Amino acid sequence: MADHSLTDQAKKKDPAVEVQNLTVGYEHQSILEHLNFKIPCRQIAAVVGGSGCGKSTLLKHLVGLYEPMEGKILIDGENFSQASEKEKQRIWRKIGIAYQGGALLRSLTVYENTALPLEECRRIPENEIHDRVMQQLALVQLDSFASYYP
C-alpha cells in the first residue's frame, strides 16, 4: 500500500495539464507552434487573445477533438495526445468545458465577469483582484470596456 500512496502523492504534484512542444493546426496549416505551459492542479487558467489568434484551435486540441501536429498534451501526467480511444474516454471524465456563450453572465460587466472566478475561488483582497482584472483586460485590449456588458 505504501507504493500506491507514494504514487498518489507524486501525481498530486504533477500539473493538471502540461503542454510540451505543442504545434496545432488543421491539415498542413499550423496555427500555433511549439507551445509549452503547465496548469497546476486547483488553478484557474484562461485562454485570452484577439479574434483569430488560435484560442479555439488550442482548446479543441487540448480536449482531444483534434490531434496535435506535434508535441504532447499531458492530463494528470498521462499522455492524452497519444492515448487510445478507451484511455481518452477515461481521461475525458476529468475534463470540464464551459463554452463562451454560457460562460459570460449578461447581468455582469466585463470587469465583473472577469473578477468572478477570483472572488469565488480564492481569498484575494479586493484591491488585488481589481489590479489583476485590469491587468488581464489590458493584455487583450479590453480595459476600456471594463464597465460594458457582454
List the helices and strands and how they pair.
Blueprint: H1 2-13, E1 17-26, E2 29-39, H2 55-62, E3 70-75, E4 78-79, H3 85-92, H4 100-103, H5 110-121, H6 126-139
Antiparallel strand pairs: 1-2, 1-3, 3-4
Helix pairs in contact: 5-6
Task: Please explain how this structure is put together.
The chain is an alpha+beta fold and 150 residues long. The chain has two domains: 2-92, Rossmann fold (3-Layer(aba) Sandwich); 110-145, no CATH class. 39% of the residues lie in helices and 19% in strands. The chain is built from six helices and four strands. The protein has a four-stranded antiparallel β-sheet, with helices on one face. Helix 5 (110-121) crosses helix 6. The termini are far apart. Mean pLDDT is 84; it is low at 1-7.
